[in-house]
Structure formats: structure tokens, C-alpha cells
TrEMBL record:
GO terms for molecular function: N-acyltransferase activity; phospholipase A1 activity; phospholipase A2 activity. This is LRAT domain-containing protein. One of its GO terms (cellular component) is cytoplasm. It holds the Pfam family LRAT. The chain crosses the membrane at residues 175-195. Keywords: Hydrolase, Lipid metabolism, Membrane, Transferase, Transmembrane, Transmembrane helix. The keyword Membrane applies.
């Protein structure tokens, strides 16, 4: 299993040979002029019948080949309002299509990942069993839950901060105050996630230490 790595952005065809079971894949979804709109996440679960498979949150109608407008990109990746979105297994090359992608296991430096087969089993067991929510359980939450047993999403924090800014502006009609509230909100959310990661990492280390102590106890 690839640990601690975050590869450069590249095509799916170039990345596929580097993939190992349990890797988190980040896919850059862009509009036609190449501006990133959001980042889709998937878990690599291995090669079967010649197909490199990933588990990811998706809508049945979510196909990157038809995501040709800002509105469609938002609805497919962040909104899915009124549509059913759920974990599904798909061909990695089809999921990426022409978008740039990378392995992103960078959270390994804060949280110890589960074993590769455990990550795979968790991802597969979730197929059809989780309900999508942009702010509380999106594709990034799902991917990190599968690898670390900890649901965290930087994109969700950005979205929450933007929503806070919009709400503040609608109430006070002051753009500078609204921006400041959004920035403060984002920082608070990131700090909270950092604390969660530290606690999770400490808990994992204590558990592993206890197992080592048990292993040396006399029979």
C-alpha cells in the first residue's frame, strides 16, 4: 500500500500503474477552460477482470463526459439536490475520463491508515449504504472514512465558510464583515479538524501500544 504519498497531477492512464489497493484518488473536476470547480475522491479497490476499480460517491447520471457547464459540475459534485447519490464501484478510467488525478494519501502523516484489505472491505461494504450530504458526508468524507476511519473534508469546510459569508452578507449587507466571518469560520473548522486528527492519531497509537504490551504477556 502506498503510504504518505501525494503524486503530481497527471492523467488516469499515467497514474493507473502506480495504484495500490487502499489508495485515495483525488480527481480535479474542471470546466471547459480548465478552471477547477471541485475535487472528486475515490478509493482504489484493485484489478478485477482487467478493470481497475474504484469505489466512490456518485449519482447515476454523474458522467464527467457530460459535465460541460458550471451548473452541472456543481450539481453533480457538490449538490445532488433531490437526486440519489451513493457509493458505487466503477472503472477508474471511466470515473476520471479526461480529468487530471493523483494519489493523495497525504493525511497518513496525521492519521495512521488502516490495512489495505480493511480499507477495501470498508469501501465495498458501503456500496449503496450511505447517503450523500455535501457538508456532512460527501465523497471526500467517505474516502477518508474508508482509509482512516475518520470523516474529514476540506472542501466541506470551504463550502460551510462560503455559506456563512453569504448568510452574514444577507443579514448585515456588509461585504467586508461577511468575508471576515467566512474566513474566521473556515479557520475554526480547520482547527477543529486538526484537533480531531491529532486525537485520532493518539488513540491509534495508544491502541497499538496496548496490543504490543499484550503480545509480550506470559501465557
Amino acid at each position: 500500500m502506498n503510504k504518505y504519498i501525494q503524486t503530481p497531477w497527471t492523467s488516469a492512464e499515467n497514474l493507473v500503474d502506480q495504484l495500490k489497493i487502499g489508495d485515495l484518488i483525488e480527481i480535479k473536476r474542471c470546466i471547459a477552460i480548465g478552471i477547477p470547480i471541485y475535487y472528486h475522491w475515490a478509493i482504489y479497490v484493485g484489478l478485477r477482470n482487467g478493470i481497475h476499480e474504484v469505489v466512490h460517491f456518485t449519482n447515476k447520471e454523474d458522467d464527467s463526459r457530460v459535465l460541460n457547464s458550471l451548473t452541472n459540475l456543481f450539481l453533480a459534485g457538490l449538490g445532488n439536490i433531490g437526486k440519489s447519490s451513493f457509493p458505487r464501484i466503477d472503472n477508474f478510467l471511466d470515473v476520471c475520463y479526461n480529468d487530471k488525478c493523483r494519489i493523495n494519501n497525504s493525511m497518513d502523516k496525521h492519521c495512521k491508515p488502516l490495512q489495505a484489505e480493511d480499507i477495501r472491505s470498508r469501501a465495498l461494504s458501503a456500496i449503496g449504504n450511505f447517503e450523500y450530504c455535501v457538508f456532512s458526508y460527501n465523497c471526500e468524507h467517505f474516502a477518508k472514512w474508508a482509509r482512516y476511519n475518520l470523516s474529514i473534508s476540506g472542501q466541506a469546510n470551504i463550502g460551510k465558510a462560503i455559506m456563512a459569508s453569504v448568510a452574514t452578507f444577507r443579514i448585515f449587507h456588509n461585504i467586508y464583515f461577511a468575508i471576515a466571518c467566512g474566513v474566521v469560520g473556515y479557520v475554526v473548522l480547520e482547527v477543529c479538524d486538526f484537533v480531531r486528527k491529532r486525537r485520532h492519531s493518539k488513540g491509534s497509537n495508544n491502541y497499538n501500544h496496548s496490543k504490543k504490551q499484550l503480545a509480550v504477556l506470559p501465557a
